[in-house]
């Protein structure tokens, strides 16, 4: 399967938050802490990416960097698909 | 291979010999089943329900050392293991019902090189036995495999017979695979108690069993929760037409939702759940319509009754109905949780606990929350590898057949979030179209 675009991952991220009764702001600089996007939500998003692409993500490959904003999450997952 | 083990002096028909048996839609009695000639010790692979019943009766009459199974449950590796353990592996089909031809048992699996202990043709009475002396009265069970690879557990007809008091006359459905512990429970009941009749369902009839049961007056059914869920899912109206007075659940964790659904359909019937295994026999029987058993049953010491204990999270049972070599406390491998005044059995220890970022989640308790949803018929809960947390809780569900609109993932997540801590809420929920089931009638293994 093809890898997902940043926009597609953003849609999935919005869905994760929508299932929690919350909304994803348009601004990539929005702080995860402020929108209540926690490690459970991040993990769920990763599973959704895996389910869409049919490929397991390899989280051991890159060193985990600081992920503080919506944009950080999207960049990280886009990059991870290419590992 | 047919080495006769007929020992006239020892033959005695069991007490239930005249009970009615319906096999393949035909009513007979135990007494009418064909007389078999079996080698000894025999591992019989029954190709039909009728053949399996004939082998069971043969054991009850002659005490032939016997392991009974189906070809599907005994793979080539297991067959080799049985031969190495001194058994003569014997295939038994419906031709056993044609004594005129004298063919009661076939050599097993000639393609695999045949049986090195093979005897002469039918009725030849070559006199060859297994590679060791038989142990009269010994019955072997293969465990269902939910504990890993099937293993042999030694019993006797007596240690398998757990219902001993006089029972009201009943016609039982037997939906189980021949030779399993649950199958022997129903079979020994009918063999040993007059007035306990059997209607046997072949695997290919399983989905339509309520029609068969209604036609033959079945008023008592024992099945796994998966069996009951599938029946409710496929055709609850057909189930309601079966005049059931006794419903029994066992073999898997029993949750409140399935008990309530069956109660709604059969308000006057006795609904029981049983905890039983080939290792410890039938050890817990609960009739009050609630999931779990009362907490004050723990650590009670009543002569002749099993003692139930909890060590850590594990159910430990000391049972008078244990299998050979399993006396004393037996670790069941089943996980329990005490909730209020009940001890709930939530699932297997090795699969029930999901570690989500250091927080422990019981898959069984999450499953119970999902199956309590009015628009779901079935749920399975597992752990899935996930970043940051190690594992996450995920689920598969089957919507109830009468649900006008199946609930969507978000609605189910909210349902769970209202009832469970954050880390226990399944985040990925896949909707299946049919309840999966295995030959053991279990699905959650």
UniProtKB/TrEMBL annotation, chain A:
Residues 3-81 form the Carrier domain. InterPro entries: ACP-like_sf, PP-bd_ACP. It comes from the Bacteria. This is Acyl carrier protein.
